[in-house]
Automatic annotation (TrEMBL):
This is Chromate transporter. It comes from Anaerostipes butyraticus. The chain crosses the membrane at residues 14-37, 88-109, 121-142, 154-184. It is found in: Cell membrane. GO terms for molecular function: chromate transmembrane transporter activity. Pfam families: Chromate_transp. Belongs to the chromate ion transporter (CHR) (TC 2.A.51) family. Keywords: Cell membrane, Membrane, Transmembrane, Transmembrane helix. It is a multi-pass membrane protein. One of its GO terms (cellular component) is plasma membrane.
Amino acid sequence: MKKKEISRPKDRKLLIQLFAATFYLSAFTFGGGYVIITLMQKKFVDEYHWIDEEEMFDLTAIAQSAPGPIAVNGAIVAGYKLAGIPGVLVSVTGAVLPPFFIIALVSVFYQAFRQNKIIALMLEGMQAGVGAVIAAVVIEMIQNLFHSHCQVDLAVIMAGAFLANVFFGINAVYIFLFCIVYGIGKALWEKGRGQI
């Protein structure tokens, strides 16, 4: 598959575009970090061509693995990749401002929102839509994973992690730790064989 040409201008225009993109995504994304990650991919990979698909997949893995909100982690890693520390500051500011303003506004009118039946029904409807969007994100990430890597061990680990958590009740922390150890071991093994 031919890679798209990646353009990464390190200037003021990039920082303005980065702020506008993260602000827009954060302001109009409902459903949390998993939704914003896929929208970042559409914006940064498909529209601006700042990052290629493989890099975005790696950045998504870092954002999901690090502690903290996925949307902020995604903004941090994407901003750093594109423009270093200034990119981090700009993208995090863009990602944090919309929820800050919205939560501040909601807190002022909390009692009115809580007792309003129309708003309660609207939020219930949004929950159904968010569930569908998160399911679509998961399916797209699985497709990207196997399209880019096509490795049987990844499929086995993914299925095993699902079964371990859902059916055997194993804490997700232990699953993450196992995956980290496996990934480090695999990387060292491939490095020893000269594949990295």
